[in-house]
Amino acid sequence: MAKIVLGMGTSHGPMLVTPPDTWGSRLPDDKRSVHHFEGRTWQFDELVAYRAPENLASQITPDAWRARHVRCMDAIERMSQMLSDARPDVVVIVGNDQMEIFGNDCIPAFSVMWGETIVNNMISDAKLAALPPGVAHAMPGYMPDTATYEGVPALAKHIIERATAERFDVAALKRLSETETPHAFGFVFRQLMKDRVVPTVPVLINTFYPPNQPTAGRCHEFGRALGRAIESWDSDARVAIIASGGLTHFVIDERVDHLILDAMKAHDFAPVEALGEAIFQAGTSEIKNWIPVAGAMDELGFDMEVIDYVPCYRSEAGTGNAMGFVCWRPPQNVA
C-alpha cells in the first residue's frame, strides 16, 4: 500500500513572492475593500480606529517588513529542503480556486483532478491588467512562462472513488485548465518544489464562495477520508500531502491563527469548529485548505511542528497576510 511520509501547510500570498519594499502597493485596494474580521464586515477606516490600541504602525515600517520577509524566505527554504529530503513519489496538494478555473456557473465544494497533465502558463496580458493593485507583479512567483507537469490519474481516481464511497460528493476534473493553474498550486510548484515538480494530484476546496462552502468540520472529515484513501492505494509510492493557503487575511487575526495552530498540534479540532463559520470568510477561508491535511494527519497520528509563524501586516487597519509554515512527520521521524 502507499505510504504517507510527510504533511505540510504553507501560506501562498503575494507578499511571499514579492520584495518587501512593494508590500504597500496593495493599500489602495485595501482601502476601498470591505473586510472580514471577528465574524463581521468592516470598512478600512473602521478597522484603523478599532485596532488603534495595537499600535500596528510599528509593524509596517520598512525594517519590520524586511525582517519578516527574511523569516518567510528562511521558512520556505526549510520547507523546500524538507520536502526534497522526504523523497515523495507523489504529492497531493490541497488548495482552492479563486475564479481561476471555475466561474459563477459552477463551483464544486470538493474537486479532484484525475487527468494526466497539469498546465501552468503565465496568464494573458488582459488578465494581468485586470488584477488588483499589487498583485500582477507577484504572478511570476506562481507561474513560469510555460510549463507542463505530470498528474497521477490512478491515485486521483482512487481518491474520488473512496471519497464517494464515504459519502463525499466529489467533482472529477480531467484538467484544471487549458492554460494555467490556480496560484494555490503554482506556489507549491515554484517555491517549494523549485520547478522540479513531483507528479501531483490537485484537490480543490471551495473556501471562498457561498453558498456551498463546506464547513470546517466537513473539511476535517474529508481530510480523514483523504488520508485513508491514500494509504489504501495499491502502490508502493511515497506520498506527501501539502496544504496551500491561509492563514488569516486579508485582515490578520493572530488570536485565531494561534488557536488553530494550537488545536492542530493538540489533535483537538473542537476549538476550531467553535470559532464558527463567520470567521472562515474571504482570505481567512483558505485555512480550510489546511484543515483536510490536519484531518489526514490526525488519522495517521502524525504530530505537527511549526516551522514559523510570521504575521506580515501592511497597514494600521491590520490588513496583510499571516504567514504560516508547518509540517507533520511520522512518529519518531521514521518514513
Automatic annotation (TrEMBL):
Top-rank taxon: Bacteria
One example GO MF annotation: ferrous iron binding
Occurrences of domain Extradiol ring-cleavage dioxygenase class III enzyme subunit B (ranges): 73-299
Name used for this protein in its record: Protocatechuate 3,4-dioxygenase
Protein species of origin: Pandoraea oxalativorans
